[in-house]
Design a protein that fits this description.
By secondary structure, the chain is an alpha+beta fold. Helices cover 17% and strands 26% of the residues. It has a domain at 95-153: SH3 type barrels, CATH 2.30.30.830.
Protein backbone atom coordinates (compact mmCIF):
# COMPACT_ATOMS: atom_id res chain seq x y z
CA UNK A 1 0.00 0.00 0.00
CA UNK A 2 1.30 3.40 -0.86
CA UNK A 3 1.40 6.52 1.17
CA UNK A 4 -1.61 8.01 -0.65
CA UNK A 5 -3.70 4.89 -0.01
CA UNK A 6 -3.04 4.97 3.72
CA UNK A 7 -3.95 8.67 3.81
CA UNK A 8 -7.29 8.03 2.08
CA UNK A 9 -8.18 5.16 4.42
CA UNK A 10 -7.34 7.22 7.50
CA UNK A 11 -9.23 10.23 6.13
CA UNK A 12 -12.40 8.16 5.59
CA UNK A 13 -12.10 6.68 9.11
CA UNK A 14 -11.73 10.14 10.68
CA UNK A 15 -14.64 11.56 8.68
CA UNK A 16 -16.79 8.55 9.64
CA UNK A 17 -16.06 8.97 13.34
CA UNK A 18 -16.70 12.75 13.30
CA UNK A 19 -19.84 12.21 11.24
CA UNK A 20 -21.19 9.76 13.79
CA UNK A 21 -20.44 12.18 16.66
CA UNK A 22 -22.06 15.09 14.81
CA UNK A 23 -25.16 13.04 13.95
CA UNK A 24 -25.68 12.01 17.60
CA UNK A 25 -25.14 15.58 18.78
CA UNK A 26 -27.61 17.13 16.36
CA UNK A 27 -30.18 14.38 16.85
CA UNK A 28 -30.20 15.06 20.62
CA UNK A 29 -30.56 18.84 20.15
CA UNK A 30 -33.36 18.81 17.58
CA UNK A 31 -35.48 15.95 18.86
CA UNK A 32 -39.10 16.47 17.82
CA UNK A 33 -40.38 13.59 19.86
CA UNK A 34 -41.99 14.33 23.22
CA UNK A 35 -41.27 11.70 25.86
CA UNK A 36 -44.36 9.83 26.92
CA UNK A 37 -44.77 9.32 30.64
CA UNK A 38 -46.63 6.18 31.49
CA UNK A 39 -48.40 6.13 34.83
CA UNK A 40 -49.29 2.87 36.42
CA UNK A 41 -52.32 3.26 38.65
CA UNK A 42 -51.98 -0.28 39.93
CA UNK A 43 -49.07 0.19 42.33
CA UNK A 44 -48.50 -2.24 45.14
CA UNK A 45 -46.43 -1.37 48.19
CA UNK A 46 -44.66 -4.11 50.04
CA UNK A 47 -42.65 -2.93 53.04
CA UNK A 48 -39.16 -4.23 53.55
CA UNK A 49 -38.84 -6.90 56.13
CA UNK A 50 -36.69 -5.84 59.05
CA UNK A 51 -33.69 -7.96 59.71
CA UNK A 52 -32.70 -8.48 63.33
CA UNK A 53 -29.01 -7.75 63.68
CA UNK A 54 -26.74 -9.77 65.87
CA UNK A 55 -25.42 -7.92 68.89
CA UNK A 56 -21.93 -8.36 70.15
CA UNK A 57 -19.53 -6.90 72.68
CA UNK A 58 -15.86 -6.21 72.35
CA UNK A 59 -13.78 -7.39 75.23
CA UNK A 60 -11.67 -4.39 76.19
CA UNK A 61 -9.74 -6.11 78.94
CA UNK A 62 -6.37 -6.36 77.21
CA UNK A 63 -3.10 -7.46 78.69
CA UNK A 64 -0.16 -5.07 78.81
CA UNK A 65 2.45 -6.71 76.53
CA UNK A 66 5.37 -5.39 78.56
CA UNK A 67 4.19 -5.96 82.14
CA UNK A 68 1.98 -8.98 81.58
CA UNK A 69 -0.76 -7.44 83.72
CA UNK A 70 -4.18 -6.27 82.55
CA UNK A 71 -4.61 -2.56 81.93
CA UNK A 72 -6.03 -0.53 84.79
CA UNK A 73 -9.33 1.13 84.04
CA UNK A 74 -9.16 4.92 84.25
CA UNK A 75 -11.38 6.24 86.99
CA UNK A 76 -13.52 9.21 86.09
CA UNK A 77 -12.80 12.22 88.23
CA UNK A 78 -15.79 13.66 89.99
CA UNK A 79 -16.13 17.37 89.53
CA UNK A 80 -17.48 19.30 92.46
CA UNK A 81 -19.30 22.40 91.39
CA UNK A 82 -18.88 25.46 93.49
CA UNK A 83 -21.89 27.69 93.82
CA UNK A 84 -21.24 31.25 92.74
CA UNK A 85 -24.45 32.53 94.28
CA UNK A 86 -23.85 35.36 96.72
CA UNK A 87 -26.09 35.16 99.74
CA UNK A 88 -26.39 38.86 100.40
CA UNK A 89 -26.11 40.89 97.25
CA UNK A 90 -25.96 44.53 98.17
CA UNK A 91 -26.31 46.88 95.25
CA UNK A 92 -24.25 50.01 95.70
CA UNK A 93 -25.83 53.25 94.51
CA UNK A 94 -24.18 55.10 91.65
CA UNK A 95 -21.15 56.70 93.30
CA UNK A 96 -18.37 58.72 91.65
CA UNK A 97 -15.35 60.28 93.39
CA UNK A 98 -14.78 63.76 91.95
CA UNK A 99 -11.82 65.02 93.98
CA UNK A 100 -10.53 66.45 97.26
CA UNK A 101 -10.37 69.93 98.78
CA UNK A 102 -7.65 70.49 101.36
CA UNK A 103 -6.03 73.36 103.19
CA UNK A 104 -2.29 73.61 103.00
CA UNK A 105 -1.60 73.39 106.74
CA UNK A 106 -4.61 71.28 107.71
CA UNK A 107 -4.76 67.51 107.87
CA UNK A 108 -8.56 67.55 107.50
CA UNK A 109 -9.65 67.00 103.88
CA UNK A 110 -13.07 67.48 102.28
CA UNK A 111 -13.96 64.94 99.58
CA UNK A 112 -16.38 65.64 96.72
CA UNK A 113 -18.49 62.54 96.06
CA UNK A 114 -21.33 62.24 93.55
CA UNK A 115 -24.11 59.97 94.88
CA UNK A 116 -26.99 59.24 92.47
CA UNK A 117 -26.27 62.39 90.48
CA UNK A 118 -26.00 64.82 93.43
CA UNK A 119 -22.66 66.09 94.67
CA UNK A 120 -22.00 65.80 98.40
CA UNK A 121 -19.13 67.12 100.53
CA UNK A 122 -17.73 64.47 102.89
CA UNK A 123 -15.27 64.48 105.75
CA UNK A 124 -13.75 61.23 107.01
CA UNK A 125 -16.36 59.37 109.11
CA UNK A 126 -19.40 61.29 107.78
CA UNK A 127 -22.50 59.39 106.61
CA UNK A 128 -24.97 60.61 103.97
CA UNK A 129 -27.70 58.38 102.42
CA UNK A 130 -26.24 55.31 104.21
CA UNK A 131 -22.88 55.93 102.49
CA UNK A 132 -20.04 56.38 105.01
CA UNK A 133 -16.60 57.68 104.04
CA UNK A 134 -14.00 55.57 105.83
CA UNK A 135 -10.75 56.97 104.43
CA UNK A 136 -9.41 58.67 101.35
CA UNK A 137 -6.53 60.29 99.52
CA UNK A 138 -6.07 62.20 96.26
CA UNK A 139 -6.36 59.05 94.09
CA UNK A 140 -9.10 56.97 95.75
CA UNK A 141 -11.57 56.71 98.62
CA UNK A 142 -12.89 53.83 100.68
CA UNK A 143 -16.62 53.89 101.42
CA UNK A 144 -19.00 51.67 103.35
CA UNK A 145 -22.60 51.00 102.30
CA UNK A 146 -24.77 48.70 104.48
CA UNK A 147 -21.68 47.06 105.95
CA UNK A 148 -19.91 46.40 102.64
CA UNK A 149 -16.72 48.23 101.70
CA UNK A 150 -15.74 49.47 98.29
CA UNK A 151 -12.74 51.39 96.94
CA UNK A 152 -13.53 54.03 94.30
CA UNK A 153 -10.89 55.76 92.19
CA UNK A 154 -11.11 59.39 91.16
CA UNK A 155 -13.21 59.90 88.01
CA UNK A 156 -12.48 62.48 85.37
Amino acid sequence: MTKKGKTYILLTAVLGIWGTIGYQFFSKISSDQVPIIVTDSNVNFTPKQTIVQDTFRINTEHRDPFLGKPYQQKKEATIRRVSTFKKDSIVFPQIAYKGVISKQKSSQNIYIIDIKGTQQLFKTGKTIQEVKLLKGNKKSITISFKGKRKIISVSK
